[in-house]
Design goal:
Layout (H helix, E strand, L loop, with lengths): L4 E5 L4 E2 L2 E2 L1 H13 L4 E4 L11 H15 L5 E5 L4 H9 L8 E5 L8 H14 L4 E5 L1 H4 L5 H10 L3 E6 L4 H10 L5 E4 L5 H7 L3 E4 L6 H12 L3 H17 L7 H9 L16 H11 L6
Parallel strand pairs: 1-4, 1-10, 4-5, 5-6, 6-7, 7-8, 8-9, 9-10
Antiparallel strand pairs: 2-3
Helix pairs in contact: 1-2, 3-4, 4-6, 8-9, 9-10, 11-12
Length: 292
């Protein structure tokens, strides 16, 4: 497994409050055709909290069958009950899944020792790679670099982190201190380019749902040292990067995708659909963004 470059945090399309499998298959093909390096399923962008376990299994199964092993697949997992997360993963078909991406426990707000023990027990219970996902804006607790490196030292299947703390100084510390075999991914479209310049190996992107080709090219240019070209693409996408979080995620990116005729903007409660104001902002901005 060689995860790097552009990973896309896939949305789950809905139609009349049901999973829209036809659009789902279309979106997988769109990613395959537009230079995405790997897909991340069942993250917050995929609205996993509003999907029941049967829907989650069905969505993942459809993505597997459509993907046909063309791109690596990562599946998201979350929970603030360690034993429950282990139980759910033990009953999940992880065939053709390259890694599990796991957020730290939400709401409980554990200490760094509690976070360490949570990941350690789950890592010991599964055999495939585990990506640590640090997103304190959603979980309420920051995973410190020391905790992540301790996990890397003591868990053979933890060598990756999606860093979405919104703190570039912390991101730099992770990158500069990471052993050669450890991979740092950006979890924030806004600072993805800066993190690649600093030495991150890729990003797990929301905007990549709509603009995978441009995001992929931007990251590739950055990795190859073509800084002007990478910055040029970022400047063209910067307004969209701001707009896709204006009314929350994935509400905003789904609105963009509807404007692009990729899928419906429908979301499930407690999320609500994007306002007409945001939809119109996307329509205006799309006229300014180059198609290539």
């Amino acid at each position: 497994m060689n995860l790097q470059g552009l990973g896309v945090a896939m949305i789950t399309p809905f139609k009349n409050n049901e999973v829209d499998y036809q659009s789902l298959e279309k979106l997988v093909e769109y990613q395959v055709e537009n230079q995405t390096d790997f897909l991340v399923l069942m993250g917050t962008t995929g609205e996993y909290p509003t999907l029941n376990q049967q829907e989650i299994k069905s969505v993942v199964s459809h993505m597997k069958s459509t993907n046909r092993n063309r791109l690596p697949l990562v599946i998201g997992a979350a929970g603030n009950n360690t034993s429950d997360v282990i139980d759910r993963l033990s009953h999940f078909n992880l065939d053709d899944i390259s890694a599990v991406m796991l957020t730290s426990p939400h709401y409980n707000k554990p200490t760094q020792e509690g976070i360490y023990q949570h990941y350690k027990q789950i890592a010991d219970a599964i055999s495939i790679p585990l990506i640590v996902y640090n997103v304190p804006s959603r979980t309420g607790v920051n995973i410190l670099p020391e905790t992540f490196f301790r996990l890397c030292e003591n868990c053979t299947n933890i060598r990756m982190i999606k860093e979405a703390a919104g703190d570039y100084i912390q991101a730099q510390e992770l990158i500069y201190r990471a052993p050669k075999e450890v991979k740092i991914f950006s979890g924030d479209d806004h600072i993805a380019l800066a993190m690649i310049f600093a030495g991150a190996v890729g990003t797990i992107s929301v905007l990549g749902n709509a603009y995978p080709k441009q995001m992929s090219r931007m990251l590739a240019y950055a990795a190859q040292g073509y800084y002007h070209e990478a910055n040029q693409i970022q400047s063209e996408l910067l307004t969209l990067m701001n707009l896709i979080f204006k009314e929350g995620n994935p509400t905003s990116v789904k609105a963009l995708m509807e404007v692009m005729n990729l899928c419906s903007k429908e979301v499930r409660l407690p999320l609500v659909e994007a306002t007409l104001e945001l939809v119109n902002a996307f329509k205006l901005e799309l006229k300014c963004v180059k198609s290539s």
